[in-house]
Write a sequence for this structure.
């Protein structure tokens, strides 16, 4: 029998294939709940879940918040600007204090890569990574995979191209780890300066040519140009980026398959990495990704909050 | 502790006759198929429910809506059991408001499963009436719940267990009484 044993969700790198598939299967069952008139089940009644967002977010934060509420958990939202972090308290101290208020799970987004792992080692409550620096954004990776599986019926053997700023993208990393484990062929594409050295070691193909990346792709995942992480001048101008790497309807019709899926984790820079006619066009499943995000996060919260670690099992 | 087969309570023929009788009773009590929907509790209750829907169609000619309920998310022991149970989906793609819902399960025991099912149904809408049909009632209720249609009443002790095996999942068609036996 399949058993979930992980206390935390730090990233997809540390999950195995069965665990990823278990989350995706569980999410399938949760999807129906959001279509009900009463969008709520009593499963996590009495659990307290804290949303700790040190970086701006609309989608991920509201998605986690709704997921927790639809499972009847109580949520508490904390953001940097209104917290004692402003007074110089360290993240770990803040977390320890929050934990002392008897919370069950902490969802954290922070600009420091690896912070979720650090907290997972020193905290008793479940830690769920909602994006840590350039490291991972596991629930985004999972919801992307869920959407691919829902639309294409499978993941194994598909050609998936990820286009944009790979270096700074935690979404790309979570996608690569997850998709490779489920047997997809992944290609990353972008200006050489935005592709990390040795990325081939993750088992992906690398190209700097957009037509090459669009050809044969079953799914194209377009990443956002992260203005807040683009101070170093890694490409000449946004206009040039849009010309060479912006995905437009014209380029799709010229190079891509007829049934290609277009995905974007949001927020979109319309006219830069994606043109409006692609974002709102028939290939786009961008809003399905958002809908599926709630089901996937409900599945993660359910599994993590109900998990019993191996130690606990031995005690029983 | 292992379970030992003690006796066979029902065979394929008897399960069929019993379900046929329950189908007739459902029609008799509700005076036809108007406003009736049948909802089975996953997993064996769902197979029984689909058979009842077929039988009602044979008898009355009308096809009534069939739904499947997964009660995992409504269990009251989630915090006490050591592994989180696999969640399957609830499939009720029709409106249950003002309908007569016939809930179907294989074995009625403590009544806790039925409590979950009632809570979930009421979250899905406001049925006019909910009725309960079970293949076997083995007693030992822990909640004030009773069945409207009972296939067979089986007095049991707490260290016994009743297992319904259906050809859809078990390759067999029978109801077995098992008793716990210390190794």
């Amino acid at each position: 029998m399949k058993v979930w044993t992980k206390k935390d969700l730090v990233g997809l790198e540390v999950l195995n294939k069965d665990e990823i598939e278990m989350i995706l299967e569980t999410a399938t069952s949760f999807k129906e709940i959001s279509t009900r008139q009463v969008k709520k089940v009593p499963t996590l009644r009495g659990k307290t879940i804290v949303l700790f967002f040190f970086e701006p977010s609309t989608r991920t934060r509201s998605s986690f918040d709704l997921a927790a509420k639809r499972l009847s958990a109580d949520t508490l939202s904390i953001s940097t600007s209104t917290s004692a972090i402003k007074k110089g308290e360290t993240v770990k101290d803040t977390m320890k204090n929050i934990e002392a208020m008897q919370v069950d799970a902490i969802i954290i987004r922070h600009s420091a890569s690896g912070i979720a792992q650090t907290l997972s080692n020193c905290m008793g409550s479940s830690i769920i990574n909602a994006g840590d620096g350039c490291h991972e954004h596991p629930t985004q990776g999972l919801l992307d995979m869920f959407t691919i599986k829902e639309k294409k019926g499978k993941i194994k053997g598909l050609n998936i191209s990820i286009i944009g700023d790979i270096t700074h993208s935690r979404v790309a990393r979570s996608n690569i780890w997850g998709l490779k484990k489920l047997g997809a062929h992944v290609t990353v594409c972008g200006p050489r300066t935005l592709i990390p050295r040795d990325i081939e070691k993750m088992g992906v193909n690398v190209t700097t040519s957009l037509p090459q990346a669009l050809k044969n792709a079953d799914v194209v995942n377009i990443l956002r140009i992260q203005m807040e992480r683009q101070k170093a001048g890694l490409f000449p101008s946004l206009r040039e980026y849009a010309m060479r790497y912006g995905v437009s309807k014209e380029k799709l019709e010229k190079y891509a398959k007829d049934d290609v899926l277009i995905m974007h984790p949001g927020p979109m820079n319309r006219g830069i990495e994606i043109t409006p006619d692609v974002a709102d066009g028939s290939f786009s499943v961008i809003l399905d990704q958002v809908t599926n995000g709630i089901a996937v996060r409900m599945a993660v919260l359910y599994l993590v909050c109900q998990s019993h670690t191996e130690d606990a099992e031995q005690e029983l | 502790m292992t379970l030992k087969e003690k006796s066979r309570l029902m065979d394929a023929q008897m399960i069929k006759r019993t379900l046929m009788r329950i189908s007739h009773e459902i029609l008799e009590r509700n005076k036809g198929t108007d406003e009736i929907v049948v909802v089975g509790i996953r997993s064996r209750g769902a197979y029984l429910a689909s058979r009842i829907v077929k039988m009602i169609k044979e008898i009355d000619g009308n096809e009534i809506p069939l739904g499947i309920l997964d009660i995992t998310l409504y269990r009251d022991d989630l915090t006490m059991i050591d592994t989180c149970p696999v969640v399957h989906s609830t499939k009720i793609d029709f409106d249950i408001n003002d309908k007569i819902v016939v809930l179907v399960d294989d074995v009625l025991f403590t009544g806790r499963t039925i409590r979950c099912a009632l809570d979930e149904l009421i979250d899905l809408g406001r049925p006019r009436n909910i009725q309960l049909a079970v293949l076997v009632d083995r007693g030992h209720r822990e909640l004030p719940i009773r069945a409207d249609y009972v296939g067979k009443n089986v007095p049991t002790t707490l260290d016994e267990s009743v297992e319904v095996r259906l050809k859809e999942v078990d390759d067999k068609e029978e109801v077995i009484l098992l008793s716990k036996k210390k190794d």
User: Anything to note?
Assistant: The two ends of chain A are 17 Å apart (CA to CA). Residues 309-316 of chain A have pLDDT under 50 and may be disordered. The domain at 138-290 of chain A is CATH 3.40.50.1370 (Rossmann fold). The first strand of chain A starts at residue 48 and ends at 53.
